[in-house]
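#struct-pred

JT: dropping the chains for the assembly here, can someone run the whole complex?
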Amino acid sequence: MTNRHLIDLSSMSQAELSELLNLAGEIRRVPGRFAETCHGKIMATLFYEPSTRTQMSFQAAMLRLGGRIIGFDDPNSSSVAKGESLKDTVRVVSGYSDILVMRHPKAGAAKAASLYSRVPVVNAGDGGHLHPTQTLTDLVTLNEETGRLTDLCIGCCGDLKNGRTVHSLIKQMSRYPGNSFVLISTPQLGIPSYLKDYMDARGVQYTELPTLEEAMPLLDVLYMTRIQRERFSSAQEYEQQKGVYVLDQRKLKKGKKSLRVLHPLPRVDEITVEVDDDPRAIYFEQTEYGMYARMALILTMLEGSERRLEPCPKSTHDHRCQNPNCITGQEAYLPRLFSGGGDMLTCDFCDERMLVE
Amino acid sequence: MTNRHLIDLSSMSQAELSELLNLAGEIRRVPGRFAETCHGKIMATLFYEPSTRTQMSFQAAMLRLGGRIIGFDDPNSSSVAKGESLKDTVRVVSGYSDILVMRHPKAGAAKAASLYSRVPVVNAGDGGHLHPTQTLTDLVTLNEETGRLTDLCIGCCGDLKNGRTVHSLIKQMSRYPGNSFVLISTPQLGIPSYLKDYMDARGVQYTELPTLEEAMPLLDVLYMTRIQRERFSSAQEYEQQKGVYVLDQRKLKKGKKSLRVLHPLPRVDEITVEVDDDPRAIYFEQTEYGMYARMALILTMLEGSERRLEPCPKSTHDHRCQNPNCITGQEAYLPRLFSGGGDMLTCDFCDERMLVE
Amino acid sequence: MTNRHLIDLSSMSQAELSELLNLAGEIRRVPGRFAETCHGKIMATLFYEPSTRTQMSFQAAMLRLGGRIIGFDDPNSSSVAKGESLKDTVRVVSGYSDILVMRHPKAGAAKAASLYSRVPVVNAGDGGHLHPTQTLTDLVTLNEETGRLTDLCIGCCGDLKNGRTVHSLIKQMSRYPGNSFVLISTPQLGIPSYLKDYMDARGVQYTELPTLEEAMPLLDVLYMTRIQRERFSSAQEYEQQKGVYVLDQRKLKKGKKSLRVLHPLPRVDEITVEVDDDPRAIYFEQTEYGMYARMALILTMLEGSERRLEPCPKSTHDHRCQNPNCITGQEAYLPRLFSGGGDMLTCDFCDERMLVE
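RK: done, full complex below.
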């Protein structure tokens, strides 16, 4: 891979991504061939907020490659929380391990870690910002289950305004020809306008529909997510609307035979339990694809990686990022890195745009 | 094994149990022969309540077989607690692993897990209901230490009303010829009448004695457990009685030379520290036998097991189990499975009986 | 090693220490040669207080030797805290594992553990008492970085009164010829008089200086530690003095080119972040040397070790240790072991001296 770290899936070329997807498929088919490929290697999982599912997926992935694991999963009960900077922890732990996997509540934390790490860093979720291995999981699932990443009509249902997994999926699938999207949500929770611009610029077709029922017959893929109760504009609207975005057996009947239903999990009640038994429901298999995706990623990142500390980039501007969820607000020593120019800058850590005077 | 899962030791035939005990003994004698037998396999430990001792025993067992481990040990600090059903967690984690070990505060939880797992499930304690690997540990200990499981006079001391380990031991040892029991407890804390019926039906001899002192000379085996202070009928009675059920050097002197003292641990003060140095005290060795017992179990369960999801059984009745500690009260999607007929049903999850109209 | 356990570095002969340092260096240079030397062995990490950094260092060390790990890191969320004695836990866990690593808030806890363990015990910190593997880390760092352990002028800066890592370093380095010390602290936080006596008795040179600035040009090694705010005699003094014991770029300029700056970590603000980029700052490398130090230690302790329970020594006196932080106050069954004679006894667990009548 061109990049030593995986912070944002967008930084990967389509050729690199394609190689990764093929490798994941090969690992799935002949896992025995890869059982010792990371023998002697250590993965450190630095989870600054608990995420048992993601952590277990990474751990299972590394163990199935023959590697080993150190790390923490709850800094509150750990001494790491006691006033050590992210930089110091990363400098130390990257001396013990061969690859770092980081989960953090602040946007840009994995990017920050990559500045000080002697080994490759994988972003396992940085606040509501990015979660590239979830999207990688979704792509492997689609590739393996439909046999292609092109010419798919993909329904996205739920809270499309705030769902980072949906945003990332739309971006990635827009890179492949022939895909179109059906966006199913309330008027208030539609996808952000920048994503519409993104699709328009690439000539990607999309429709917005108010109900899951209308959309069902059109879809090759349905990507379900949850709308949290408090996102509805009123309790009354919640009561009226809630059923509209719940997938049940009745609605599923209107779907194609070849439909595939995905969900990033955990689900709450947006898919009824009965749906689980339908062969088109593949959200549990999806988590297993996620393990193969992470195996392919770890293997690729460790291959040819050498331990080295690269010089930390210098601040590009004097400004401070104004995003309260950005890691730069918490770790004051970080360089101030922005892209763009004129009076509009984008923070390299959290990707928030900022108007400067 | 006939059964894919180990939920209740009673479901194992005596031939299967015998094979398991022999295997545990062989592993103990030539551990090197088994050091790589689970190479490449992953055990997931799903501990919905912390139990460090049990978890470490399972982990050591799996590691000594060459296998690896993922899992969690405290769902409060983990995201698993955040509204994901037991079913979903089991479906996901059984995609990452080759065997599941589950500890849960609700009765029937391991049984529930077995309905949705693609890999074998081991019950590592489900509330106050069952704890089959503790009983397996006890059987391996007796078999290795006395060289037999027959013709033993077994004293059980402590809270025999509520002690599930004692109940399970009595049931298992009643399957072997020539064993007899001496039950040592307060009148209020004697064994439940169903266990007396059980022994009567099998022609198993038993005596009830009020003091440990009287019982000592009779015993080949003494299985000690604790009476919690609050189980006594009054504070006054506690003060009068407490010493009666404490094993100390003076009482131990009245025991046979070949006596073996067991305890499921942790002990509090029901065995004095001085007793530890007596060679007849084998409760610490017992925990090591527990590791061999679990090694034999894991090895047997993984042998010839293939990943598959069996169809979930349909509800047998419309009734709901009334036991507030039953897993079915918490996980509403579970099928309602009962055995028995007429107006008396037994819940297949928690084994509670229920009168229906 | 003469001693089966590592409780206190002082109990190691200089020849043994020297062998250990050489082995650590060899492991660092050709790690591959040692990658399977602990294959099949299990290390149990019993951390009665969280110390993520120390635990990860031990874990990485054991994994890089091909071994495996069980243990706990937070007894509050674990059942071990529920009324089981240290003795019982150690008896049980030493039946599961091949080496125990213990961290505990009470002085003497590792010594106590060693009385009941069937396998070697390593002290990973017992309260403010001892932390031998930190000192071992410091020695390996000095040996590898300066190529010698003799003829070094070593500056120790910070709270020298309470800093156990500094005390231990001074003791160890006083065993080698030609070393001298520069002690940099406030008058209230100077080193204890017993350490001055110790150096005087061995003819070791030392100077006390009030500022880091004056000391800088003299030093081959600077060992930085933190002065906690509350150690200053007043808030006013804190404000006046705090900068004096902070290492920044300006002060570092006065240091030799060959200077090496060490710190046991975590640092808070006693070394400014800019210093990290100076090649003389080796505190992050120091943690990696710590991993090699622990690899050498584990390997040496496991070599030729056999599982056995040694008879527990009998109480030497009737007295109880008066130190409120001593493990003997918490675990009442421990033998009362004291050294010395006449009316001055030293507790063998916590090393506190006690006047008896």
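JT: nice. The domain at 9-131+289-302 of chain A is CATH 3.40.50.1370 (Rossmann fold). The longest strand of chain A covers residues 42-47.
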